[in-house]
Amino acid sequence: MESYAITDMGVKRRTNQDYVFATDSPVGKLPNLYIVADGMGGHKAGDFASKYTVGAFIETVKNSKADNPISIIDEAVTSANLALIEKASENIDMNGMGTTLVVATVINDMIYIANVGDSRLYLIDDEIRQITRDHSLVAEMVYMGELDKKSARTHEKKNIITRAVGADMELVADYFEIEYSPGDIILMCTDGLTNMVEDSDIRDIIIQGDRDLSKIAHRLVDTANDNGGKDNIGIVLAIPDYPGE
Q1: Cα(115)–Cα(108) distance, rounded to whole angstroms?
Q2: Domains in the chain, start-ordered, CATH in brackets?
Q3: What pLDDT digit, counting tens, does each position of 133-142 carry?
Q4: Sign of torsion, CA 135 138 139 145?
């Protein structure tokens, strides 16, 4: 595996509530681990929520006795959610804080993924495919046929998410098991990128980047900021080894 992670405050925000984690080395029984989180709940609370959730998630993965990767991830999502809720109850200034979460690990020729909220995971080859499904009000409207994707990008309620870590004791995440093909690039990101850069432009930047993940990540950030940079930007890029390598 090869990966690169970056966050940027953007142009408009004064704090960075996005938090990213990427390691190509084992974490517990997982051979690698990639995480993107976008915090919410006020300046200090949002910043804390994303970082704390990722830390709690990693700690559970390290100690998990489960063998199945989805079981390990599910255990860590549940544990991180309860830990964040408990932390919020200790401080009135953090009441109501939460975070999105998208997580991935690559094992052999499979990518195991979980997501909560509207941070996304894409697979890019000649095309760009969004693997995760946004848990947001406008995404539900698009799914129901009440709104088209183009209008959803500028809808006044596009920032309302319907699921978040820390929002409910009974958190339901979505899980995916995706087979990858040699040459696929994994992109995980917050909406600070996807609200500012069209999917087709993201694809063009990635396939023109000569597989230099640092160069690609910085160009994605620069493009989002050039287009307005209205939110923090969190990005993880990863290239899996070919099966058998």
Answers
A1: 21
A2: 2-239 (3.60.40.10)
A3: 988 766 665 5
A4: positive
